[in-house]
Amino acid sequence: MAVTGWLDDTRASYDTVAASYAELLRDALAGEPFQRGILALFAELVRAQGNGAVADIGCGPGRLTGYLNGLGLDAFGVDLSPAMIEVARRDHPALRFEVGSMTRLDLPDGCLTGLLAWFSLIHVPDDEVPRVLSEFHRVLRPGGVVLLGFHAGDGSRLKTEGYGGHPMHVYVHRRPPHRVAAWLQAAGFTVEAEMTHRPAPNVEGGFVFAHR
User: Which segments in the chain show pLDDT lower than 70?
Assistant: First the structure.
């Protein structure tokens, strides 16, 4: 599915919903034991590699960046939306947040021990995913850990409203974990685990762990 202008649409949409998104999801992890467990495993794998910098790519208002820091990781956040980064800096003033695109990360080669992309690849069109994963591979050091979270399934839909009823214009892409794992392998990663979580009827989340 060809989607043009997706970066501009994603930036504008999340600028629009930044404040309401932050408020609605502020305490979401408290009711998600499986997600907390997945993040705890990610933290353990990063620590096993000797710690080091961890990037939360597509960090939004920084709720997971803060959570990872609470798990003892040296995490910072990157997001396409300047409004999201403004909220993240307000809510987590002790942490580092930067505006940036996952298609071209402003980070040196091999500077990260861990990289989290938590439901932030869902707006990236299929034909752009290899470029994004190549960037992830570039910025991770050998042995570095990547965790991808995404909507599992197949197909895409246009999201025109969200997070308090504000207008949006983004495509939401669903992918089966095996497809995401294959993309990671093609980008040079070693895939360690593929998981599917079903928190509610007709709702599936996919998670893939890999290392460089």
Answer: 1-4
Domain ranges of the chain: 6-211
Residue 42: its pLDDT value, please? 98
Q: What is the pLDDT of residue 3?
A: 57
50 burial level (CB within 10 Å; 0-12, 13-18, 19+): exposed
CA 80, 82, 83, 85 torsion: positive or negative?
positive
- Residue 26 structure tokens: 């502020």
CA 67 from centroid of its chain's CA atoms: 14
CATH architecture observed for domain 6-211: 3-Layer(aba) Sandwich (3.40)
Tokens 């439901």 sit on residue: 119
Strand partners, 48: none
- The whole-angstrom separation of Cα 21 and Cα 80 is 15
